[in-house]
Structures are given as structure tokens and as C-alpha cells.
Design brief:
With about 280 residues, the protein is of the alpha/beta class. The chain has twelve helices and eleven strands. It has an eight-stranded mixed beta barrel with strand order 3-4-6-7-8-9-10-11, surrounded by four helices. A two-stranded antiparallel ribbon has the order 1-2. A hairpin with a 5-residue loop joins β3 and β4. α3 (about 90-110) packs parallel to α5 (about 135-145). It starts with a strand and ends with a helix. It binds ligand C2E and calcium ion (3 copies). The site of one calcium ion has 4 residues, from loops. Ligand C2E binds near residues 10, 50, 80, 241 and 243. It comes from Blastococcus colisei.
Length: about 280
């Protein structure tokens, strides 16, 4: 069995033991999925929020919602250990719905308290290909009384390329509704530039793997600068994820990158902690 340490770094300390060599139908996997079904209903899934900051004004413009599973016996289970599993089953639908709804409810509370934060939610390929997805999202916005402009959806390149024509149509409906759309982990997948040009998206999130090594690896630094330029030429906002130190921050700023996210600014935090951090950053 693999032992995955979920470090104190991510605000949750715990050790999870899973056998990652099992196929989908193994009793362990089925057991975990069964537990996940229950966990969604019983509120064991919690969201942590990581801020995104504008590099020039140093204003906090929004947060990314990242799910964690607060398991009664296993401790905090990181998304990498259950999202890929859920993505292979229809369970990803109620899970994503729960994450969007929880993030929107939080956004509405923040708005009522004078904290203007856009919330970003990660969306899986399977969500994007689901017939009811757009209507579900629009219904949740109405139900929570949150303007569409306050919601951002992050979609990976591979999710789009699974069915580019269909993705383009779905993303078009979401964009028309006023939702901000980002391509996550950009550069790690294989979006053709021909498709990129036609996608109704607003942001490119440069994959962490390039950002993390841009101060030590010349070609990664060149790739980041090229992506920033490409994004700007296409009229897109560029976001760097995984900014871990001041040197990287300075390089990105010099490269003209618009927004940054990473441990150098703040780790993903529970809502209450994020509020304290945000208020301190704003000088409240
Ligand atoms: P992602 O969307 O690329 O999210 C960024 C990940 O990088 C997060 O890991 C975040 O905690 C981590 N991170 C942020 N800043 C830094 C940094 O400076 N250095 C390093 N090394 N890491 C940093 P997390 O929360 O464990 O999430 C992992 C992945 O799980 C996410 O990658 C996303 O693909 C998926 N995920 C998380 N929450 C959800 C969700 O609600 N729905 C779906 N479908 N996927 C989710
Ligand atoms: Ca993301
Ligand atoms: Ca990412
Ligand atoms: Ca990722």
C-alpha cells in the first residue's frame, strides 16, 4: 500500500493509506467510493480557499476553492486521492455540484460582509460533457443569489480536448451567462493552438511545473514568458500557479504575468482563516 503523507503545509495533517495499484472494481476502491457518496451528503467534504493576487496592484481578486475530505477515521484526504476515482464514475456530478454550491454560498456570505472575492471551482471533463451541467450551474447561481461574474470555472486542457466541439459549445453557454472561464494547468496538456484561438475562455493558468522551476531552468522561464505573451496576444488574462518564492514572483511580474497564486502568497485555507488573511492584506 502507498502511504501518502498529506503534509502540515496544506493545513491538514494526516496520513492516508491506500493501495493505488488496485483496479476500479476492487473492494477497496468500491468501498472508498461508497464512503465518498456518504461523505458528500454528510458534509465531510470541506473547501479550502487559496487567494489569487494581481501582480501589479497587489490586490486580491479571488480565491480558488480546493476540496478536502475530512474523513472521520483516516483524517484529511487530499483531492488527488479521491477526485481521480470519482471522475471515473457518475459520482463526480454530485461532488462538483456540492463544491460549486458550497463555494457560492461562501461567496454570498463574503459579499454580504463587504469582501469582494470571485471564487474559482475546478470542473472535470465528465462535468463538461454532462447534458445538465450548464443548467445546474445557472440554477445554483440563482439559488445562492450570486452574480455570474463572481464565479470562475477552471477546466483542464485534457477536459476540453476530450471532445473539443462539445466543450466549445458548453463553454460558450457558460461564458454567455457571464461566468469567467480558465484553462487550468496550461502547457501540461496538448491544446492545439487552433482550438485555443476559438475557445470562449478568459484566462490561462500556467502549469505549476513551469512556474516552480523558472528561476533555475532557463527553458522553463522561456516557456512561461512565451505563454504570457501568447495569452496576451489572444486577449487572455494570464495566471501563474505554484508561486513559491519572491524570486519567482519578481520574474513573473517582469514577464508581465497578470495574476499569481501560490504558497509565497498563501496556502489554501479554511474560510475563516482566509477571511483573516484577506482583511489583513487589505489593511482592514
Ligand atoms: P489544481 O487545480 O492544479 O490546484 C492547485 C494545487 O496546487 C492544489 O493542490 C494547491 O494546494 C496546490 N498548490 C497551490 N500553491 C502551491 C505552491 O505554491 N506549490 C505547490 N507545490 N503546490 C501548490 P490540491 O488542493 O491538493 O489539489 C490538487 C488537485 O486536485 C487540483 O489541482 C485539482 O486538479 C484537483 N481538485 C481539487 N479540488 C477539486 C474539486 O473541487 N473538483 C475537482 N474536479 N478537482 C479538484
Ligand atoms: Ca485549478
Ligand atoms: Ca492547476
Ligand atoms: Ca493540476
Amino acid at each position: 500500500a502507498d502511504i501518502a503523507m498529506y503534509s502540515a503545509k496544506d493545513r491538514g495533517v494526516g496520513v492516508c493509506v491506500f493501495d493505488t495499484g488496485l483496479d476500479d472494481h476492487s473492494p477497496e476502491r468500491l468501498g472508498l467510493l461508497g464512503e465518498l457518496r456518504r461523505a458528500i451528503d454528510s458534509g465531510e467534504l470541506v473547501l479550502h480557499y487559496q487567494p489569487k493576487m494581481a501582480m501589479v496592484s497587489e490586490e486580491v481578486c479571488g480565491v480558488e476553492a480546493l476540496v478536502r475530505w475530512q474523513h472521520p477515521e483516516r483524517g484529511i484526504i487530499p483531492p488527488a486521492l479521491f477526485i481521480p476515482l470519482a471522475e471515473r464514475t457518475p459520482l463526480i456530478h454530485p461532488l462538483t455540484r456540492y463544491v460549486i454550491d458550497t463555494a457560492l454560498a461562501q461567496c454570498a456570505r463574503w459579499q454580504a460582509e463587504g469582501r469582494t472575492l470571485q471564487v474559482a471551482v475546478n470542473v472535470s471533463a465528465r462535468n463538461l460533457l454532462d447534458d445538465g451541467f450548464v443548467d445546474d450551474v445557472l440554477e445554483l447561481l440563482v439559488r445562492r443569489g450570486v452574480p455570474a461574474a463572481c464565479l470562475e470555472l477552471e477546466v483542464t486542457e485534457s477536459a476540453i480536448m476530450a471532445d473539443p466541439a462539445r466543450a466549445q459549445q458548453i463553454l460558450g453557454r457558460l461564458a454567455d451567462a457571464g461566468i469567467t472561464l480558465s484553462i487550468d494547468d496550461f502547457g501540461a496538456g496538448y491544446t492545439s493552438l487552433a482550438h485555443l484561438k476559438d475557445l470562449p475562455i478568459h484566462q490561462l493558468k500556467i502549469d505549476r511545473s513551469f512556474v516552480a522551476s523558472m528561476t533555475t531552468d532557463r527553458s522553463d522561464a522561456l516557456i512561461v514568458r512565451a505563454v504570457v505573451e501568447l495569452g496576451h496576444n489572444l486577449g487572455l488574462t494570464t495566471v501563474a500557479e505554484g508561486v513559491e518564492d519572491e524570486a519567482t514572483w519578481q520574474r513573473l511580474r517582469a514577464a508581465g504575468c497578470d495574476l499569481a497564486q501560490g504558497y509565497h502568497l498563501a496556502r489554501p485555507m479554511p474560510a475563516s482563516e482566509l477571511e483573516g488573511w484577506y482583511d489583513a492584506t487589505r489593511g482592514v
